[in-house]
Give the backbone structure.
Amino acid sequence: MVLSIEPVSALSTGPLLGLGLDRSGPLAAQVEEQVRALIRSRALEPGARLPSTRALASDLGVSRGVVVSAYAQLAAEGFIRLRPGAAPLVAVTGRAAEPVAYEPEFPLVRARYNLRPDLPDLGLFPRADWLRSCRRSLAGAANADLSYGDPFGAIRLRSQLASFLVRTRGVLADADRTGIFSGATHALLVLGAVLRAAGAVRMGVEDPCHRWRTRVLAASGIEVVGIPTDEHGLRVDALGDVDAVLVSPDHNFPTGVVLSPDRRSALVDWAAAGDRLVIEDDHDGHFRYGGIHAGALQALAPEHVAYVGSASALLAPAVRLGWAVLPARLVAPVADRLFSTALATSRLMQFALAEMIERGYLDRHLRRSHAAYKRRRAVLLRSLARHFPDAQVGGAPIGLFVPVRIAGEARLLQRARKRWIALDGLNEHGLTPQPSGLVLGFAAAPEAALRRAVGLLKILAAE
Amino acid sequence: MVLSIEPVSALSTGPLLGLGLDRSGPLAAQVEEQVRALIRSRALEPGARLPSTRALASDLGVSRGVVVSAYAQLAAEGFIRLRPGAAPLVAVTGRAAEPVAYEPEFPLVRARYNLRPDLPDLGLFPRADWLRSCRRSLAGAANADLSYGDPFGAIRLRSQLASFLVRTRGVLADADRTGIFSGATHALLVLGAVLRAAGAVRMGVEDPCHRWRTRVLAASGIEVVGIPTDEHGLRVDALGDVDAVLVSPDHNFPTGVVLSPDRRSALVDWAAAGDRLVIEDDHDGHFRYGGIHAGALQALAPEHVAYVGSASALLAPAVRLGWAVLPARLVAPVADRLFSTALATSRLMQFALAEMIERGYLDRHLRRSHAAYKRRRAVLLRSLARHFPDAQVGGAPIGLFVPVRIAGEARLLQRARKRWIALDGLNEHGLTPQPSGLVLGFAAAPEAALRRAVGLLKILAAE
């Protein structure tokens, strides 16, 4: 079946340009391996047409049997789809063996220094209070509470959360309009899908904006449009014709900028004038270390602003609970969508969180975390001033991170990650190029580790 | 502003046909209330055009001010959208105040007799073992385990589940291809979206099939096509040009039919021949009371069949955990989709379930439940034989329900629900009309309650 070919190396000039055969082994195996590599690397995308066996054989100067054999093996492995009388297609994927992980650079458990800008200190997670809340809430649950329940969330948690958000963030919330999700990103996914179904086409996001948020909105089917930001926050005048906008008015990620009062009014007016929706993403606004005490934007216009938050920064991402306080008109469509997609969040977790709030455990945890984070932020700022005296350190005294403008972002990130420092770059969250710099989290690392990490970054920057 | 009108009742002849005014109160309030009711009942659909104020006023023989005032109030409440120079539109929704609930007829907590065909006995939920598992698994978790983790699921649970499914259902599973979801319906949603993204257009489902599954697949964006079934299960010869099919080969819901061996082979051949996907929905196959011991269909062709199951029947829906054992080619796209939609399931719950399996608590719970359900099924069958001697009772001795053909389904359901009996009708799960009958769950009610409920149904049927 395998024929020898005259030239030592034959290059395909067809759609598989770059395929090269030599005498290193069976020709079919070589074709098979190289096509598999092209599919794995996504050089050949899922759904792409492959050349017919005849065309490729002719391109490569081999017998058709060589290509038939290679294609058959690739089809058996699921990399390609053979179609009678038509060109084969690259199958859905050939990447099954690759691990996929939330942690984009390396598993957090391997991090030597955890400077992730979007994580709280998981070591402070109140394990004993959480278990106590699990026990008490389960003891108080009726058997019927262990069924599916309201897809919009357990009323008990919705009531507790509504008053918690009124008290801690000035949100105009009540249980009726407060819904429960699997994290804030799930809330964004559902809101995106609901807006899309109602005819919305384009959603603005701040540029820059946390990449996971942009990603999840795109997955909801809505077109995501970057809106420029400046030192006053979102450029409301640049919103153009978007139908909705996602904004973090109290603390942009990753610039740390706070939306100015003028812009707040303008944004709310924009929404009200066109019956558009503002989604307020309050990712880390519960932690405030300075004089800035703006309340939630949502309170200015509760029928035009959906307030979204989650337990990820308050407790831990593993809790996987988020919430949204919605304009009244969105309650039914969001609940419907939750029902249709059957994505109610675990009620056992919801009951536990309700208990955490009701017993005051969450408040106690936030006081402790706040005290630790305030100290750590001061340590990080001092270390940066010492090791990077020329770097511009920005952002309001809020949340879990500070942005630092430093030249050579990409190189520095690469070096830092090789040394197992978990951290983000400003440009990793931009829809367009951003100033070179880092986004350094201070919440997740103890003070001594922060000092050492910044010292190490200094050495890496100078290398 | 409000003028009296000559005729006592004026009917609109325009697009709002049926609007009737009388002298019972302010005219604007009457217009407002009736339009609101039309929107709430969806007689006027979201996005529908309303007549202009001028046209409606003329139709109703009232001054334009009456309609302007009514429309203004409806707009303020979010029911309609006013547009300068154009006809108002019905807003996205006006149903905000209505509760939305999973329990389609009434909240389960109000059920006098719980004959729901898709629920286990929530009173048997092993609360103490569950709490023990929460405590032990949290004690064993590293701080980094409280972060987001792998969106495909915690490896610890995936390993435990894979061996559990091999052992209990003969699934060809390993941790690499076993993913974790928020229930089986979430797995269907993700699979639907992944297939859709890969170019699939139509997915077949058994007709009849549980209505929530049809609903969630439709929400994933794929076109759902009912495939006829008969006493041997899915009519494989009628699959037509669908790209994938959802089937419960061991126990169709709601007919209880088991897919015949011939059909199993034919189904697998169909999938393999066209690179199509079979999704095996194993909703209650762990409970088997008779001689039928077919293993999972997935074992016949693990690269063409995705096996889907959940904790809802095994433990309780409130756990909100499901799983899928996937063909290798689907692992990466499913994990990618989970990452993009940020819908990882709570890791705290995952750790707890892994502990439940590892310690043997889940097996113990299943043995106990199985024994109780076996007795209850016998009681239900005896009660049916006594009170409905002519009714045809079908289905294999498997799972949580039996289908019963009884005339007058709709009337009987209505009467039963008025008496707070929770149960389903055969036609509620058909894509096309089904034989008249009920789907009676026997797992969730104690033996005495089953006897009384069937006796009550007999009385209601005779009324």
Remarks:
- The longest strand of chain A covers residues 223-230.
- The CA atoms of residues 201 and 437 of chain A lie 33 Å apart.
